[in-house]
Design a protein that fits this description.
Blueprint lengths: L10 H15 L4 E2 L5 E2 L3 E5 L10 E5 L1 E2 L2 E2 L4 H9 L5 E2 L2 H29 L7
Antiparallel strand pairs: 1-2, 3-4, 4-7, 5-6
Helix pairs in contact: 1-3
């Protein structure tokens, strides 16, 4: 499946987008009752919650292992994942970045739904 180029994003933003894409391609997404797909379900929080030596605000997924996790469980998953999630100087900048990334995630999901006959809709996708 060909996804949109994300080279204009920082390496950390690419890591977050690739987490979302892996959930699509591995059919580890959550199919919502309305037909929507959850692959990331982002949250902005102080970076020190995930990366003790970093300042600012971080975007992490709360979708892990097939479920949307509450805090602090989502933080534990993010910290243990080894993924270098994006950190920004403040919440406003982080929320703006999250909106940019969410647009890509929406387009990816639309492309995935069109290609679904080739990828299947396993597990939660039924």
């Amino acid at each position: 499946m060909d996804f949109e180029d994300i080279s204009q994003f920082t390496p950390q933003e690419q890591a977050a987008l690739n987490y979302h894409r892996a959930n699509l391609l591995n059919s580890t997404f959550l199919r919502q009752p309305d037909g929507g797909i959850t692959t990331f379900y982002g949250s902005v929080l102080p970076a020190r919650a995930v990366f003790p030596n970093r300042k600012g605000e971080v975007i992490i997924p709360t979708y892990w292992g097939g479920d949307i996790r509450k805090m602090p469980e989502a933080v534990k998953f993010a910290a243990k994942s080894g993924i270098d999630f994006p950190v920004y100087p403040d919440a406003e900048t982080a929320l703006a970045a999250e909106k940019r990334m969410h647009k890509i995630m929406e387009r990816d999901t639309q492309a995935f739904n069109k290609a679904k006959p080739f990828f299947g809709d396993k597990k939660r996708g039924k």
